[in-house]
Amino acid sequence: MKSVLLFLFAMAGNTGFAFPVLAGDTLEVPERVLFDFRREPDRERWQVEDDVVMGGRSQGDFYVDGEGNGIFSGVVSLENDGGFSSVQAYFEPIDVSAYRVAVLRVKGDGKRYQFRVESVPGERHSYIHHFQTSGEWETIEIPLADMVPMHHGNRLDLPNYPGKTMSHARFMIANGQAEAFRLEIDRVSLR
Fold first, then answer.
1. Which of 131, 125, 188, 190 is nearest to 164 (CA)?
2. Where does the pLDDT of residue 139 fall: very low under 50, low under 70, confident under 90, or very high at 90 and above?
3. pLDDT tens digits, 95-127
4. Residue numbers of the domain that contains 70
5. 178 touches 82 (CB < 8 A)
6. Which of 43, 93, 129, 186 could disulfide-link to 165, CB 3.0 to 4.6 Å?
7. Sign of CA dihedral 38, 42, 45, 47
8. Which range among 12-21, 63-72, 103-112 shows the weakest confidence by mean pLDDT?
9. Number of C-alpha atoms within 13 angstroms, CB side, residue 11?
10. Do 42 and 23 belong to one domain?
11. What pLDDT is recorded for position 17?
């Protein structure tokens, strides 16, 4: 039975389908890549949103470099009640109930960033997890159940991310200070 499931999984890699894999006595779901900037459709989904939407003066930029990494960079300004820059992607809701961890392959500048998700389109709040970068390429694992509900910087009295569906992902910098920033993103996946 185990060899049949492993064969099916190997074949799935050629067809785009993912089958669970039996490992010991448990059923493991293969990693799901949400974004890989080497793929053209993934590049086009991401757009910058700065505090300019609320009158601020921060300026973020997003592009894909020659090595296929998404580059989110710019300057956060506190002028005019500003203080954040973000890059985000919306997509049709996907079922994420089989996964427990968001896996970010990134290279930051030593600053703290946020990874945010929304369950359904148009949700008024995001589920957020802060992560610190080291200045080197690193893999950051974020337990989905640890992502807290927030709206405009305020923690809400709601349960943490339920991890059933996902329709939006965002990287944000909002550390309460004026600063230049640069975050390189190789890929985002679920495990």
1. 190
2. very high
3. 999 999 999 999 999 999 999 999 999 888 999
4. 32-190
5. no
6. 93
7. negative
8. 12-21
9. 7
10. no
11. 40
Same domain, 56 and 134: yes
Per the listing, tokens 């927030």 go with 150
Q: Is residue 172 pLDDT above 70, yes or no?
A: yes
151 and 77 inside one domain: yes
Q: Which of 35, 87, 89 is nearest to 61 (CA)?
A: 87
Residue 29 DSSP label: P
- Distance (Å, whole) CA 43 – CA 64: 7
Smallest CA-to-CA distance from 186 within 54, 6, 36, 30 is with: 36
Cross-strand bridge partners of residue 79:
none
CA distance 16 to 153: 38
Written as six digits, the tokens of 103 are: 């896996």
Percent of the chain with pLDDT over 90: 75
Q: Is the dihedral of CA 83, 89, 92, 98 positive or negative?
A: negative
Both 114 and 101 in a single domain?
Answer: yes
Chain centroid to CA 147: 12
- The CATH number that applies at residue 75 is 2.60.120.430
Mean pLDDT across the chain, nearest whole number? 87
Mean pLDDT across 130-136:
98
Q: Are residues 182 and 95 in the same domain?
A: yes
Separation between Cα atoms, residue 170 and residue 22, nearest integer Å: 33
Same-domain check for residues 36 and 124: yes
